Amino acid sequence: MEYYSRHISNLVEQLAGLPGIGAKSAQRLAFHIMHMPKEQVGQLTAAIKDAREKVQYCKCCCTLTDQEICPICSNPSRDRQTIMVVENPRDLAAYEKTEKYEGVYHVLHGAISPMLGIGPEDIRLTELMQRLQGDVKEVIIATNSSLEGETTAMYISKLIKPSGIRVSRIASGVPVGGDLECIDEVTLLRALEGRVDL
Ligand code: ZN
Questions:
Q1: Confidence band, pLDDT 50/70/90 cuts, at residue 173
Q2: How far does residue 114's CA lie from ligand 1's centre (Å)?
Q3: CA-CA distance, 153 to 139, in Å (whole number)?
């Protein structure tokens, strides 16, 4: 039996499908939305729709961007010979906030995880290897220090090594299992400066 409108049940179901939102939070959010002014709800749904429809993957580094090529890749003063490999755009943003990294990035959108069934073909590795056909001097692997991040770093390192391009890994000043985006800028910079060759 339905305790309330099926429209609300549907909304709860949709919200509960989002990561980190349990059944209780979904209900709380749904009822909060019911009490919001209609205009505000319109702005929220438009923002979701706009972001999903207008944002695309950068043709070069695969980060999320409004343009075909993201502002970092199209910035002529960035050093294109140095590519930092990160797991997601949030990690990219964390390094950008330090304002000290002058190279470009490559966003994998995930990490290899045999446990979750995520293989090398499920992340943006092909695109990375294609970029390495160009003039690249160093690839800095800045995946997280979780098991998945380390597995990914090892895999990429093995893949790139034969090409003769320098491969380095950010220093392990980053706490194990720590998400890059939660780490302060000083620690990030120290990890970058203390990177070791693989
Ligand atoms: Zn880009």
A1: low
A2: 28
A3: 11
Between residues 190 and 20, which one has the greater pLDDT?
20
Could you state, in order of their start, the residue ranges of all structural domains in the chain? 64-171
Top CATH class of 64-171 equals alpha beta
CA-angle at 179, arms to 177 and 181, nearest 5°: 160
**Distance between CA atoms of residues 154 and 118, nearest Å:** 15
Surface-to-core class of residue 117, CB atoms within 10 Å of its CB (0-12 exposed, 13-18 middle, 19+ buried): exposed
Question: Would the pLDDT of 175 be above 60?
Answer: no
d(CA 31, ligand 1 centre) in Å: 39
What integer pLDDT is reported at residue 178 of this predicted model? 57
Q: How close is the Cα of 72 to the center of ligand 1, in Å?
A: 6
Positions of E strands within the chain: 56-57, 64-65, 79-86, 103-107, 138-141, 166-169, 196-197
Confidence of residue 75 (pLDDT cuts 50, 70, 90): very high
| Mutual angle of helices 23-35 and 6-16, in 10-degree steps | 130
% of the chain exceeding 90 in pLDDT: 76
| Centroid of ligand 1 to alpha carbon of 176 (angstroms) | 28
pLDDT of 194? 81
58 phi and psi, to 5 degrees?
-60, 135
CA of 64 to the centre of ligand 1 (A): 8
